[in-house]
Amino acid sequence: MCGSHTKCPHDVYPATIARAPGVSESLGLAASILAIEGALSQVGLMGTTVELPLFPFVSGERSYFGSFWGNRADLQEVLALASEGKLKHNVVTTKFDDINDSLEALGRGDIVGRAVVMFD
């Protein structure tokens, strides 16, 4: 049995974490629980800098990447399409306790669209 202050080889850490902007402290948390060879994805922009612990990322062959697209005109066009009912979307909600099952379903391709965690 592993001690509570050490990382246990029997522990399971997420291979992929997708993070939306919001609370900057969540980036540190995401980085700290990311599996070896895992990927941390930033969706959208928040601020002008990102601080990540260098050694854990390099030694664990972890990846950090992000995505950002569009401008105000693109947003206006998307909102116009949405208001005309021309965009179709699929949002699947999950409880925090069921997040691992949802991540597995996303990985298998069983969820098409967006999975959103709902907190009580």
UniProtKB/TrEMBL annotation:
Highest taxon in the source lineage: Bacteria
InterPro entries registered for this protein in UniProt: NAD(P)-bd_dom_sf
Gene3D superfamilies noted in UniProt: Medium-chain alcohol dehydrogenases, catalytic domain (3.90.180.10), NAD(P)-binding Rossmann-like Domain (3.40.50.720)
Protein name stated in the entry: Alcohol dehydrogenase
